[in-house]
Amino acid sequence: MFIAYFDESGDDGYPRYSSELFVLTSVYLHYSNWQDCYQKIYDFRKSLRLTYRFPVKQEFHTREFIMDKFPYHGKFTTAVRKKILFDFCSFAATLDVKVVSVVIDKQNIRRPTYHVLKNALTYNIQRIENDLAPLGNVGKFMIITDEGRVGAMRNVTRKIQKINYIPSQFSGTPYRKEIKSMLEDPLLKSSDQSYFIQLADMI
Fold first, then answer.
1. How are the residues of the chain apportioned to helix, strand and coil, as percentages rounded to the nearest 5?
2. What is the pLDDT at residue 75?
3. pLDDT in tens, 92-137
4. pTM greater than 0.85 (yes/no)
5. pLDDT at 171 over 80
6. Of 125, 163, 173, 179, whose CA is between 20 and 30 Å from 87?
7. Do residues 3 and 28 lie in contact, with contact meaning Cβ atoms separated by under 8 Å?
8. Which residues make beta-bridge pairs with 105?
């Protein structure tokens, strides 16, 4: 079984919105790799504490960190914030995890009824399912996310397990392919208690 951690950036509003992009990222890994991966992230966070005095247990919220907002304001110079972020990206590339990022550019939307979150989540889950499909019954996964949009995500995931239409590359008629490998509803976990959700946020 696999565990998929989700986090988003930007708002999912449309046609009224405050950000032109909505990005939904999943970081997923096999359960047998979880402890090893967690330990590597924890050790990396300890290295940030030793090198930059970034507390091990403090949430790494990337947007606020980049923009020097609370709770990081004034604690790190621009050069140091850039170095920490680059270190984090380089470290993330060494982990035995897989990543899917779906970007919705609202400037390209042509339908006023377009549902940003529903489509981003459906595309992301479909990518995970396609990747795990060759594993058969072993390729099951569950979603863990923060409290931001868990209710809306639950509604979407329940629906696409019953009815899910996929656009066809060969004809104008979509075909049905319901999600079969996902277990349970998306489960809630506060991002300040999950290094993996913070990793998805950073990506």
1. 45, 20, 35
2. 95
3. 999 999 999 999 999 999 999 999 999 999 999 999 999 999 999 8
4. yes
5. no
6. 125
7. yes
8. 21
> CB–CB of 178/160 below 8 Å?
yes
Is residue 176's pLDDT more than 90? Answer: no
Distance CA 171, CA 169 (A): 6
What one-character DSSP code corresponds to residue 10?
S
| SS3 assignment, position 41 | helix
Tell me, rounded to whole angstroms, the distance of Cα 42 from its chain centroid: 19
Residues 6+ apart with CB under 8 A from 68: 74, 76, 78, 81
- Backbone CA torsion sign across 191, 194, 198, 203: negative
Q: Give residue for tokens 């470290």.
A: 91
* Cα–Cα distance measured from residue 184 to residue 2, given in angstroms and rounded to the nearest whole number: 13
**Tokens for 3?**
């565990």
